[in-house]
Design brief:
D-amino Acid Aminotransferase, Chain A, domain 2; 2 domains; 8-stranded mixed β-sheet; 7-stranded antiparallel β-sheet; 15 strands
Length: 354
């Protein structure tokens, strides 16, 4: 693996022996109820709680606060927002590089499609949302960051009824950008295949990410860098947050057909850029079609595509070399094309921070 996971085997288990049963009995015999806090005590506790993971949080806009905060202890959501307890919402993650939001308009278009699919009306226009995003990036003060947009059903209660929420919620947060380490691109990564996780709404970037979480956990437990799920017909679908593409034996760059996957913004852009490699003779064509597991096993090259990954070469499949086991020429060339597009194509991005 290119990076050791935080946990292996059974994540979350205590590394030391469990306490003796007598300890549990003693605790149960002398219960201590939690204190009832007044407002000042609650706020003081929120301020003082350690949040080492929040060092990457730069700035957040909350429709609940009606403003932007740069204090991580204030970057929270109401518990009765249906996005929290039902996953009722949609989201996007947009990369900001050198102060420009890459493929911003494409991300907004997909956000609007996802919202329409679950009958959720955004509370702002696209132009207004763009202004908010720019303000969040500027408040965060980092030209290289990741901007996540969460569009929720909003606060209103704890049932499954979406109509109890009077107003949608909108939250944007800018965090530091952490791409994979350089050796992941020079050595490639390992993937595995599983049919244990099915995506129920593959065309919607829903906040109900439990299938994606289970897919990532499965990858970590099995020692893979990434896991690729299958569609209901047993064909290649996608990873927990990334699309997959391969170079087949005929020299064509092929990605799974639309229908059972989330149409990745990076995937779509890379397929367009890859046509330049056809003109250069490095590829014989660019296609979308159903891909079987055998197609992956016999591929010349494979790669993962995503907002934080860009073009990440795959060189191992479940412990065995994929292709010749080396980073292939198409993955390298396509990665360079995408990097140039991100940094030097102003038509593909939206300015946010000078």
């Amino acid at each position: 693996m290119y990076a050791l996971p935080l946990t292996r085997g059974m994540p979350g288990r205590h590394p030391l022996p469990f306490p003796h049963p007598a300890v549990y009995l003693a605790l149960m015999s002398e219960p201590t109820p939690p204190p009832v806090l007044d407002d000042e005590q609650a706020i003081a506790r929120l301020r003082s709680r350690p949040r080492p993971w929040a060092e990457d949080y730069l700035a957040m806009y909350s429709s609940w606060l009606e403003g932007i905060t740069t204090s991580p202890w204030l970057m929270s959501l109401p518990l009765d927002d249906h996005m929290v307890h039902r996953g009722d919402g949609v989201f996007e993650a947009v990369k900001c590089v050198a102060g420009r939001l890459y493929q911003w308009e494409a991300h907004l278009a997909r956000l609007w499609r996802s919202a329409a699919a679950i009958a959720l009306r955004p509370p702002l226009s696209r132009q207004e949302l763009t202004r908010v995003a720019v303000a969040v990036v500027r408040a965060g003060g980092h030209p290289d960051c990741l901007v996540r947009i969460f569009l929720s059903r909003g606060p209103g209660g704890f049932t499954t009824n979406p109509y109890e929420c009077p107003t949608p919620g909108l939250y944007l947060i800018a965090t530091r950008l952490h791409p994979p380490p350089p050796q992941a691109y020079t050595q490639g990564v390992e993937v595995g295949i599983t049919s244990e996780v099915i995506f129920p709404l593959p065309g919607v970037k829903s906040c109900n990410y439990l299938p994606n979480v289970l897919l990532k956990r499965l990858a970590v437990d099995r020692g893979w860098d990434f896991a690729i799920g299958l569609d209901p017909d047993g064909n290649l679908a996608e990873g927990s947050t990334e699309n997959i593409a391969l170079v087949d034996r005929g020299g064509r760059l092929v990605a799974p057909a639309p229908g059972h996957i989330l149409e990745g913004i990076t995937l779509t852009r890379c397929l367009a850029l890859a046509r330049r490699l056809v003109d250069q003779g490095l590829l014989q064509g660019v296609e979308r079609r159903v891909l079987s597991v055998e197609d992956l096993r016999t591929a010349r090259e494979a790669m993962l595509l995503g907002t934080t990954l860009d073009v990440l070469p795959v060189t191992r499949l479940e412990g065995r070399p994929l292709g010749d086991g080396q980073v292939g020429p198409v993955a390298r060339a396509l990665g360079r094309l995408l990097e140039q597009d991100i940094r030097h194509n102003p038509q593909a991005s939206t300015p946010a921070l000078d």
